[in-house]
Amino acid sequence: MSDPASSTPAMHAVSAAELFGLDIALQVPAFVERDDHVPEIDPAYRFNRDVTLAILAGFARNRRVMVQGLHGTGKSTHIEQIAARLNWPCVRVNLDGHISRLDLVGKDAIVVRDGLQVTEFQEGIVPWALQRPVALVFDEYDAGRPDVMFVIQRILEREGRYTLLDQNRVLQPHPQFRLFATSNTVGQGNPNGMYHGTQVLNHAQIDRWNIVATLDYLGAAEEAAIVLARVPELETPAGRALVGAMVQVAALTRKGFELGDLSTLMSPRTVITWAENSRIFGDVELAFRLSFLNKCEEPERPVVAEYYQRCFDDEIRESAAHAMQAQDSRSAA
């Protein structure tokens, strides 16, 4: 992968039904050999059927696929885990505010050749990936700066060639180059205030994405299975009951967020963190406060505490600091 691949590494067709358990007769190309850019397989990952089909269409038919959903649903991981099972090299780029046009396109840099300093053009991630059999994933796509987004717009077309103006070169996409993106919104900005930094995207650019899939949170049983896979020490009757209650609390926070009672919610990632911290501290309630409750706004914490009490039949203890503040307030009164 160090040089642009003029020829494609050995490939073969795999069955989507056999590899992902899908009820569809779809053959997907896969690479025979793995390289350093292929993600590691996570055997605990659970695939969403519709999103899996969308991503497989991207790999099999060279469709541009965007996966949209709330944080913690596993959007980027979903793409990576499919790539891992196809032995497809995959590179993720986070479009945060620090990524510039030069990072994507490339820039002149001073290098040493034969003991002399010379100026040489160094390719950015877009021309590098475009010339190789690699899946390029733009994370946080809706947070990209406008000048960065227009760099991407040209390669969104399936056969879109890319012109390096500084080099007076036209780059032809590699036949196995693939393009994906993940986003928290669908390009409409930040209407509910949850995702600061997201942008209103150019509708012409959104229109260039062939497929937009929505990834929601898993069902309770599947989410509990993932938590248990991440924290196998809880794979006991008592541990399974504990994880089930944790998942119930998470579901209530998501419902509360949907109804406008909360401004934040528990993602599956947070539930896993809670379960891990409960093992560290040996205290489920303390782990809950440190993993999630302290992230909530002060006026919303009684609501979250009620969710906890409802699922665990136990009240959240006041922290020492809060208890001292309450005592000081009572003494002052």
UniProtKB/TrEMBL annotation:
Which top-rank group of organisms is this from? Bacteria
Task: Using the record, list the residue span of the signal peptide; answer none if the entry has no such feature.
Answer: none
Q: Which Pfam families match?
A: AAA_5, CobS_N
Q: Give TM regions.
A: none
The AAA+ ATPase domain extends over 61-207
> What is the protein's name according to its record?
AAA family ATPase
| Source organism per UniProt | Candidimonas humi
